[in-house]
Predict the structure.
Amino acid sequence: MADYTLYGHPRSGNAYKTALMLALTGTAYDFELVDIAGGGNLEAAYLEVNPLGKVPALRHGDILLRQSHDTLRYLIEQTGQFGPAGWDEEARMGDWGGFAVDFFGYGLARLRFELLFGAGPGPVFDYFKKVADRGLGIIEPHLAAHDWLVGDRPTIADIACYPVSSFLVDAGYDAADFPGMVAWQERFKALPGFGTQLDLMPSDNWPPQK
C-alpha cells in the first residue's frame, strides 16, 4: 500500500493534473476510481472523502486535499520538484494556474463538451469560443518564445495547463495553427513519468463505448 491515495476518474482534467504530478515526481500512489458517470461521486462513501462530490481528492496520512491546485502545491513541498525559485516564479505559476481555469477550463474544455456531448455549434458554443480564442491568443505567443510556461524548466504551471490543452483538436481547432503549443506538448509528453489519463487512472469503462 502506497503512502498516497488518489481518488479520481480519467475524464477529469483536474484529477489528471494530480495524477501527472504524482507520476512526474516518481511518487507512488494507490488509485481509487470514482465512477462519475455512474454517480459514484455522490455516493455516501465518497462524500465522506469529499463532501463536494468532486474529484480529485488526495489522501496522505492524516492530510486530505480536495482541490487540484492544493495537491500540486502540497506535492512541491513533499518532493521538492516542479516548484518555484523565488516569489517572481511563484507569482507567475499562480497566473498560469488561474489561466488553466479561466481560459482552458471555461474555454477549450467547454467547447470540447459542446462538440462531443452537447448541442454543438450555437450560442453557447460561440460564448465559450470567445474565451478559448482569447486564451489561445495568450498562451501561443508565450510558447512560441519560451520552452516552458515559467522559467527555463517544467513546473506546476505546465502540469496545470497541459491536461486541457490536449483538448485542442476536439474543441474544433487546427493544431497546425498553434505550433508553439504543440511543440510544448511534445516536450511535456517526453518528461520521465508522463502518462495518459488511462495510464495513470485506469478504468475499464472509459472511454464509453459508442
